[in-house]
Write a structure and sequence with these properties.
The chain is α/β, with parallel strands linked by helices and 391 residues long. The longest helix has 19 residues.
């Protein structure tokens, strides 16, 4: 891996952007003051299988005002994947953009420990143990834990922590694909953790949060008061209705459901709410988080025989969401084509790339449809909204 990092990349959701995110950016900028810092951020939908609370341009603008040089959209086809596929797509996209160092937070593991764990995970011995445990009837997660524990019980236990696990997946992808990329591990403040979940909960219940910076908190409070945010109940009703209306044969054809899960999905969709449906459908093999991603993928998949979420294409463009004006020359140095106009891109992109961008437009349309206040439910906002330029 490279030992210098003129271009550092981070993967983010910023749902919402809070003080912990700002602190991480400060650490990166202080460690590498001469480097450029870019981010790929989940757009309208986040990995947990639901729309973000605020739109992607607002969240990206907050990050640029806090020190990120440019924010690009992490496509929905990548964002709505399991943690291992999410992180693999993220590392691949950052590599395609010319990034030579990925920065991320971790609860406890160091760079050397992550490299050690990833090196074991790409070995033949690990693969043999993993498939052996799966054949014994363990779930993939349980089998992976036991296969890792064969080399290090400590690493296996620490990789149950979400940020450690994401960092491990980034590192594994880098080693497996032989990317010339380094990793920068930012230790998380576990004594004073700042949770995006807590920030969202506070915003939804109190229309404000102490976890955001003063300027961001003021704007967030205004958005909440105006009803310019995703109403979770409205979104859940969308998923619930679609699930109830889709015939079991259509669920089978779309390819998202395995091991007969479509039978259970169709049956439980008759319950009175999406929450009850998910609770009745979840199992040891299909956790609630996995089911929520399935629901999101089902809602976003166009009427086709096979969902595009099954095999997303490789990254072939980077769509700009927000940029620090003084860093505009950075765009010329990135290897991927940069999209600043959705209308122009839809006319000029190759078919496969246009289909991926179309999915992000669909995701934004769903998020807009689920806004709390009716006047913010206008569709096709991707065609009317320009990247945020911060002076």
């Amino acid at each position: 891996m490279s030992t210098t990092s003129p271009l550092i990349g981070i993967t983010a959701e910023w749902n919402p952007f809070h003080a912990g995110h700002s602190a991480m950016i400060d650490i990166i900028k202080k460690a590498y003051p001469q480097a450029s810092l870019i981010a790929i951020m989940s757009g309208a939908f986040v990995q947990r299988g639901e729309p973000a609370l605020f739109d992607k341009w607002t969240r990206a603008g907050w990050a640029v005002r806090s020190g990120v040089d440019a924010v690009f959209e992490f496509p929905a086809l990548y964002a709505l994947q399991s943690a291992d596929r999410f992180s693999c797509h993220a590392a691949s996209m950052l590599h395609a953009m010319g990034v030579n160092m990925i920065a991320f937070g971790a609860e406890s593991l160091t760079k050397d420990e992550l490299i050690s764990a990833a090196s074991w995970a790409i070995s033949e011995d690990y693969e043999h143990l993993l498939h052996e445990r799966i054949a014994d009837g363990l779930s993939y997660g349980e089998a992976a834990h036991e296969a890792m524990a064969a080399a290090s019980p400590y690493l296996a236990d620490e990789l149950t922590k979400p940020n450690n696990l994401l960092g491990f997946r980034y590192t594994e992808t880098i080693l497996r694909k032989h990317y010339d990329m380094d990793i920068l591990v930012i230790p998380r403040d576990m004594e004073h953790p700042v949770s995006a979940t807590s920030a969202r909960r506070e915003l939804l219940s109190q229309k404000r949060t102490a976890f955001l910076s003063p300027s961001d908190a003021k704007q967030a409070a205004k958005l909440m008061e105006e009803g310019h945010y995703t109403d979770p109940a409205r979104y859940e009703d969308c998923c619930h209705l679609l699930s109830r209306l889709m015939p079991r044969e259509a669920l089978q054809a779309i390819g998202l459901f395995k091991e007969g899960l479509e039978y259970k999905w169709a049956k439980e969709s008759q319950r009175i709410s999406y929450e009850e449906m998910l609770s009745a459908t979840k199992s040891k093999r299909y956790l609630r988080s996995s089911l929520k991603r399935l629901g999101a993928e089902l809602l976003l998949s166009p009427a086709a025989l096979s969902s595009p979420f099954l095999a997303p294409p490789d990254p072939s463009y980077a769509r700009l969401l927000a940029l620090k004006r003084e860093k505009s020359t950075l765009l010329r140095d990135l290897p991927l084509p940069i999209i600043t106009s959705t209308a122009k891109a839809m006319k000029t992109l190759p078919k496969e790339a246009a289909a991926m961008l179309e999915m992000d437009i669909r995701a934004s349309d769903v998020q807009s449809f689920c806004q709390k206040e009716k006047r913010y439910r206008k569709g096709k906002m991707d065609f009317y909204t320009s990247p945020v330029i911060v002076d």
